[in-house]
Amino acid sequence: MSPPTRRTMLSLRDRYEVGRGVEQFEFVGADPSLALPGYTPGAHLALRTPVRSNAYSLLDDGYRPDAYRIAVRRAAGDGGSDWLHRALRPGDVIEAAPPRSAFAPQLAASNHLLIAAGIGVTPMLSHARAARRWGRRFELIVGVSRGDPLFRRELDAVAADRLRRVEGRTALLGAVRDALARQPLGTHAYVCGPTGFFTTVIEDARALGWPDERMHVEAFDAPELDGGLPFRAVIRSTGESIEVPSGVSLLQALDQRGILLDRLCERGVCGRCLVGVRSGAVLHRDLVLSAAERRRDDRMLACVSRAAPTEPAAEPATEPSAHPPAEPRLELEL
Amino acid sequence: MEPHRALPVWGEGIPELDSAARTYTLLRVPGRQAPTPGGALPEWSDWVVRRGIPAEAVSIPADQVADWVRHATSRMAEVLDGRVVGWRLAVSGEESAVMAARSAALRAHLLSAEITCHVDSREWVQVFCASCGARTLGASAARNVVCSGCGRALVAHAHSSISAGLYLADSGPDSGPDSGADAAEPTG
User: Fold this and answer.
1) I want to staple B48 with a disulfide (CB 3.0 to 4.6 A). Which of A2, A321, B34, B53 is the partner?
2) Rounded distance, CA A226 to CA A229, Å?
3) pLDDT tens for each residue of A115-132
4) Alpha-carbon torsion angle B172, B130, B167, A211, nearest 10
5) In which element (H, E) is residue B125 found?
6) Which stretches in chain B have pLDDT values below 50?
7) What phi and psi, each to the nearest 5 degrees, are found at residue A21?
8) Predicted local distance difference test score (pLDDT) of residue B162
9) Could you report the per-residue pLDDT of A204-257, keeping only the tens digit for each?
10) Distances (CA, A) of B39 to A300, B43, B49, B156
């Protein structure tokens, strides 16, 4: 039985190069009588290839789209992107999940600082185009490789007067620090790039007094995670108790009981396997939930997050503990 | 502690400030019967000095606070002018003034996480008239407040808007001309 995910079939209309090793793919509905649903700026489109499923940021502002446009870098070691470059031709049909928003603009913001490194520019194009359409104030900083024309024309068209292109990681981080230090109250910052890049940007922002609630991150890779400690999950509605051993994700443990959640990346990036948590402390290991959402501890991503280890009872250091720590436990809303 | 419910809950004692702040403004808006002149400011001032966080202290004289509440939006605009992300606001004093300052700061796009509030007196209540929408500032001890917009005698309810910084009020059962309502001035 496959997970209960809504699927749609898309047909590739066109593809062409937009940067070194990067091509833009334009999809329309395989059934031309059905209009493509609109989407929130910064949303991603999940494509199921024969190799693996990947999520790609949509490039337009999402308002009444005539097509779904994504940009794909041919990446060694990422079978899905490589397959798209190698095998997908105009007219071919591919299975996709509807666009999903996990990187939306904060509509209460007075200003938007968009920060991208390399192919991380893709959701920023969407944000900038939406900001143009709806009259929102924004500034865009993009890290580029020397001589790479990646989206040069598109960026100039949408953000020429608010765009700073920077070559080199050190120069980019310096430009970002300068920008973070002078943003007016009410600014929200959006960062997309490799994990090492956005981690540094977040550290710099915190050092400048930015609260985490003003920082929004879209990752396109996920860190390696350890197997984690065993814990117990209890389904609140049925009382069913499920053991989740080390090295097995909650998502996999639920699968084994026939409880199939929606999923795509299974790396804590796409956000599809979100489950509600009624009680228990969560060790969040995803790249989707905000700091505020994590603090609430009322939801988690079943693919990577686990129960937080329980604190051992305080006892004299010389005495062996008569009461080992209680088994970590989460009560789930499914 | 920040108010999280329709009825503000301010917590006991003086809340700690945010050590992640880059700069602070410490605002004192005391009531006339405030238990101490400085409220939380002496403790907060020591705190920012110990941590080396640049801060400025702004104190409004107690006899000017009611007027400050009536013009809180423009007064807070002066406080907020030219600030950049990293700045924090800490406000201590009379509840109506703290609520008005917080409301103005939120409208200027500050987040709750960037505002610290401390209330040490409740001498005034600023209400929103459910009938005409006017704002009126009245003495909190008064049984009723006359609406500055429609003239109705209003009863303030234990229900407030955190974003607007106002208590809800409507015309109570004794809303006639002899209701004993205290005259009050419009606030916006």
Assistant:
1) B53
2) 9
3) 999 999 999 999 999 999
4) 160
5) strand B124-129
6) 1-4, 176-181, 183, 188
7) 70, 10
8) 75
9) 999 999 999 999 988 766 667 788 999 999 999 999 999 999 999 999 999 999
10) 41, 8, 17, 26
Q: Tell me the whole-structure pTM to 2 decimals.
A: 0.80
**pLDDT at B1 (0 to 100):** 43
Alpha helical stretches, state H, chain B: 41-51, 65-70, 72-80, 95-107
Q: How many CB atoms lie within 10 A of CB A182?
A: 12
**Tokens (6 digits) for A244:** 């989740």
Tokens 């607007």 appear where? B164
B87-94, strands of its sheet edge to edge: B55-59, B23-29, B87-94, B115-121
Nearest-by-Cβ selection for B20 from A108, A183, A206: A206
3-state secondary structure of A35: coil
Residue B52 contacts A where some CB pair is shorter than 8 Å: no
- Cβ neighbours of B41 (radius 10 Å): 23
What backbone torsions phi and psi does residue A123 show, to the nearest 5 degrees? -70, -25
Q: Report the residue of A112, A185, A190, A293 to disrupt the B interface, i.e. the one with the largest count of B CBs within 10 Å.
A: A185
B85:A213 CB<8 A: no
**How is residue A247 written in tokens?**
């090295």
Lowest mean pLDDT among A149-158, A179-188, A315-324, B44-53: A315-324
Type and span of the H or E element at A329: strand A329-333
CB contact under 8 A, B80 and A185: yes
Mutate to test the interface with A, among B109, B114, B116, B163 (most CBs of A within 10 A): B109
Average confidence score pLDDT of chain A:
89
Task: Tell me the pairing of strands B185-186 and B135-139.
Answer: antiparallel
Instruction: Quote the CA–CA distance of B91 and B99 in Å, as a whole number.
Output: 9
DSSP B73: H
- Here the ipTM equals 0.79
pLDDT of residue B59: 95
On the question of pLDDT at A291 being above 50, the answer is yes
Instruction: State the average pLDDT over residues A24-37.
Output: 94
User: Is A107's Cβ below 8 Å from some Cβ in B?
Assistant: no
* Cα–Cα distance, A87 to A266 (Å, whole number): 24
Structure token pair of residue A329: 């436990």
List b or e across A146-166, with b for residues whose CB sees 16 or more CB atoms inside 10 angstroms: eeeebbeebbeebbeebbebb
Nearest CA to A146 among A166, A163, A164? Answer: A166
